[in-house]
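quick q for whoever's on today - can somebody do inverse folding on this one?? i tried earlier but teh output was garbage lol. tokens:
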């Protein structure tokens, strides 16, 4: 009966351990990120140019850009992607 829960079955593997990067920002950067989320592309590019690539990609991920969603997951910002998924109503994100 419990065979279907065996992790040794082909195609199922345990989740990989992900190292998360810190997301501590000055208030001014958080305010700029809010403007980027509102749709200000000039501010969004500014964030990217100033070294906040994760906020650039998080903004794109909010607007359903899959490449940015993948970037967040692959570059240590899975917690930002989890926040976005939770806001989208995905029950398993948190």
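ok took a stab at it. sequence:
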């Amino acid at each position: 009966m419990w065979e279907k829960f065996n992790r040794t079955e082909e195609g199922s593997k345990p989740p990989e351990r992900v190292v998360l990067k810190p997301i501590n920002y000055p208030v001014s950067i958080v305010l700029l990120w809010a403007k980027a989320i509102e749709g200000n592309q000039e501010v969004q590019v500014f964030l990217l140019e100033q070294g906040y690539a994760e906020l650039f990609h998080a903004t794109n991920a909010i607007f359903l850009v899959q490449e940015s969603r993948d970037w967040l997951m692959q570059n240590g910002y899975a917690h930002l992607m989890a926040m976005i998924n939770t806001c989208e109503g995905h029950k398993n994100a948190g």
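fwiw The CA atoms of residues 24 and 86 lie 20 Å apart. also The chain has one domain: 27-94. so keep that in mind when u check it
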